[in-house]
Amino acid sequence: MVSEMQSSMTTDTVFTVRNLSVYYGSLLAVRGVNLDIPKNQITAFIGPSGCGKSTVLRCFNRTNDLIPGARIEGKIEYHDQDLYSKKTDPIDIRRRIGMVFQKPNPFPKSIYNNVAYGARINGYQGNMDELVERSLKGAALWDEVKDKLKESGLSLSGGQQQRLCIARAIAVQPEVILMDEPCSALDPISTLKIEELMNDLKQNYTIVIVTHNMQQATRVSDITAFFNAEESLESSNKIGFLVEYDLTQNIFHNPQNKDTKNYVSGRFG
Ligand SMILES: Nc1ncnc2c1ncn2[C@@H]1O[C@H](COP(=O)(O)OP(=O)(O)OP(=O)(O)O)[C@@H](O)[C@H]1O
Ligand SMILES: [Mg+2]
Prior knowledge:
Layout: H1 2-7, E1 13-24, E2 27-38, E3 42-46, H2 53-59, E4 70-78, E5 81-82, H3 90-96, E6 97-100, H4 111-121, H5 128-138, H6 142-145, H7 158-171, E7 176-180, H8 188-201, E8 206-210, H9 214-220, E9 223-231, E10 238-247, H10 248-253, H11 258-264
Parallel strand pairs: 3-8, 3-9, 6-7, 7-8
Antiparallel strand pairs: 1-2, 1-4, 4-5, 9-10
Helix pairs in contact: 4-5, 4-7, 5-7, 7-8
This protein binds adenosine-5'-triphosphate (ATP) and magnesium ion (MG).
Magnesium ion binds near residues 53, 54, 180 and 210.
């Protein structure tokens, strides 16, 4: 399946995940994930609650490091770099690999400063007005906010706030944007706007999105990874694992695994 997928694509690989397991303290949350994330594509993570989608997503920009007791086994390569090597600077990684969360979380600052903040911290030397405008345009928000850049980011609607967070993420010129259920707090119109935006963004960025919305996965993603969880013999917690990943059309129309088929057809989860 993977070789078929790779042969039908012409893109580079951004992340290579090999035998990744993630622990929280002594608890094994996700085991043995093998996955490649292709450049300039949208990869969707789907699967029932608790199967480890957010956990794996956070490994890509090392935000799991910020959770006490979290640790990984196995390997993630970012291009040819070992993401978890001592030589890798997690701060630099988080600049190159941005994140957008489920709940829009603008800073309590002006719209302008929400976008400029990260660039300023990184010592951006270019024209800040231009960067802010370009980022807001990139997030399809410019027309709605251009006359009120000094107003608080918190004064915007939820859908606008989420696009502001996307503008903030792209202002530091990352290569990858990780999105953890970015539309789950949004109405259908805002959701469609974000989906259209993702389609534009993938020209310049690699996107990995976690979603519980099957229609969304089919509408936006090129590749889909289905995760599931099984009972653990040692503890009451379930252990997450990757069942299969493939071109989205195959996952939804011709999955190899019966659990994938049941899940995408809404029979469980
Ligand atoms: N900060 C944490 N500390 C301890 N355990 C955690 C932490 N975050 C997640 N876990 C555990 O790891 C497992 C996977 O959780 P995770 O949040 O990655 O699942 P998910 O697939 O994103 O679920 P959902 O669809 O509900 O968001 C769960 O058993 C969860 O309890
Ligand atoms: Mg999650």
